[in-house]
Amino acid sequence: MVKKLYKHEFLSLLRWLIPVDLGCLLMAAISRLALFLGDSTPERIIKSLTGVFFGLSVFAMFIIGYVVVIRRFYTNLLKNEGYFTHTIPVKTSTHINCKIICGLLFIIVNFIVAILSLLIIGAGTGIWPQIWDAFKKAMKLAADSAGAVNFTVYVIETVLIMLFGLLLFLQQVYASMAMGQRMKSKAGGAVLWYFIFYVIMQVSNSFLIIGENAVVTSTGLRPVELTHTMLGISLGVQIIWNVIYYVITRVQLSRHLNLE
Amino acid sequence: MESKVILECRGLTKTYGHATALNDVNIKLLSGRIVGLLGPNGSGKTTLIKLANGLLTPTSGEILIDGHNPGPETKKVVSYLPDRDFLAGWMTVEQALRYSEDFFEDFRTDAAKEMVGRLGIGLGQKIKTLSKGNREKVALIVCMARAAKLYLLDEPIAGVDPATRDYILQTILSNYAEDSTVVISTHLIADVEPVLNDVIFIKNGMIEMYRSADEIRETENMSVDALFREVYKW
Lengths: 260, 234
Hints:
The complex is a heterodimer. Chain A is mainly α. Chain A has two domains: 125 residues; 135 residues, no CATH class. Chain A is 84% helix and 0% strand. The termini of chain B are far apart. Chain B has a six-stranded mixed β-sheet, sandwiched between helices. In chain B, strands 2-1-4 form a three-stranded antiparallel β-sheet, covered by helices on one side. In chain B, helix 5 packs parallel to helix 6. Chains A and B meet through helix 1 and helix 3 of A and helix 2 and helix 3 of B.
């Protein structure tokens, strides 16, 4: 049953993922081919235009990706389709988990496609190996000079913060919709609750920054020497907010569902 | 065949702020009956049906389906037809049937395809391209193609032409199992009266009456429709 839920969720998102991501990769290929053109004015115009369209296709891919994932949650759980979805014999939490996992994977795939498209554009030019070597040297230099930053751990922490950050945005939107669905205007209510959550998070983050500065001052260490501590705290705070939003969404949809 | 209680409400109450949608409802529905849940708009019919489906939680009291509180286990045996479009417009008719087949073990795909075929609707047609009447028929087929223990149909004949109403009622009669219970919520009494075994009159969230349709006609010397007009007249 749960496998089928995920299957249908992926199929519904793939309808959008495939054409949008393929479009982005195609624009990358066209931009790469355009680089072979000469330096005459028309050829340079074509090169510029393909570059612009490639940039737009990447931008559109991300925007469409988020819109599709958020819209899927809204229409499948909170609008008329919800009359069928919520009568499927699984728990409400199973539905929420499915939406979160599939939505996050969808967005991660978009990031991978964006990276692939950049690799396509730079293919055969030798630019990407140079950029990667320069990046590694810079990171190693920073780590060696600090003496307290483990490069591998730093990369792992950064990736985790990015992943939980992506998840946090989705969860914040889902929680906003879960709260907003109890109001007369579901969409308006969702926007209102998004801003309320945003303000609360900003205020709590301000206190966190003040606290971190106080720790730096009191220990007398250089900020770079507290890199792992600070990243660990940031990651912990992100995880806490993710849990809070998940609980809000689950309670609202389990006990206060409003499909009207 | 011995009847058992398929749906039971014990002191069931549902409030929305200061408004009471259902007030201390106590009823037991037996298996193998076609029950009309009759009442005017706002009487609590849809609220009761949603509580039975687990789409709402009671403010107090409880509702039991086949002895269990609404949840994944009861959803396996309850087939629900809501009073609005619930099928995804982007799906084809076949995809909608497969969607239901994937989630409900009791879904009879062959029977569903046969019913769709008799209507002259192509399986490859997108739901959003169907007329309102045909969308409602496909939704009804998705509901009645299940071999459920309890069917909850919320206003299945509202807003459709008389021929479609006849089709809907015929489909209901020909597709439910003998030991299943069908609850039809409606305010169009005259159309459904011929198929009803029992009737529940609900008013302002309270059960006014729960009797057999035959008993009403014998003792009151009037049709259920006429009695409804008497009970609910202004």
